[in-house]
Write a structure and sequence with these properties.
It contains 8 helices and 8 strands; from the N terminus they run E-E-E-H-E-H-H-E-H-H-E-H-H-E-H-E. It is an alpha/beta fold. The chain is globular and about 45 Å long.
Length: 227
Amino acid sequence: MGMVSLTKGNGLAVVENLFIGVAGMIGAGKSTLATALGEHLGLDVYYEPVQDNEYLADFYRDTPRYSFAMQIYLLNRRFQQHQEIIWRGRPAIQDRTIYEDAVFARMLSDTGLMDPRDYRTYLQLFQHMSNFMCKPNLIVYLDVDPETSLARIRGRGRDVEDGITLSYLSALYAEYENFVSDISRVIPLIRVKYNEFHDVEEMAQVIKREYLDHSFLRTVTEWRYHL
């Protein structure tokens, strides 16, 4: 997507050709933060396909049967988004990165919810597709524990998510820990202790300032700036 330019003017960062991914557990607040960052930084926002996901209800109803179809569907949709971001050449933020699809797939395989043969096929496809992907300039990981994730899922009241269990989320959280460790070696990542934050606009300001440090793994646990 070319060079990234971050300059200060009127107290705000001016962003050119910046590609940010927002990562995190189910119910972490990714869409809310992506919307706020889009408004603050002037980014196009690409949301996770939920409302029109024709596999979602079947996946939660019978996960072993539909896990492979669900993962292929999501990989295809997110790759389409990813390529559109690159082709348009405009600053953008993606609600859940394409790399997280592999997080879910591995968790499903490890917990016996995806056939090993299906997982191998999925992984090979993901690896082939990765040859055509441009890495985000930054990933913001919203660190939310499984208990909070479950509470937020229950709070938003989506019928298709009624079957999500704490054990499912705990396995997912453990795999996210591996994801953060691995991806932060190649893409700058800000790990936000989201449980400790309440004001999304202030969080957007903190994330902009943290990005200026260009560190590959930053953990934001408290306010360190006068906003």
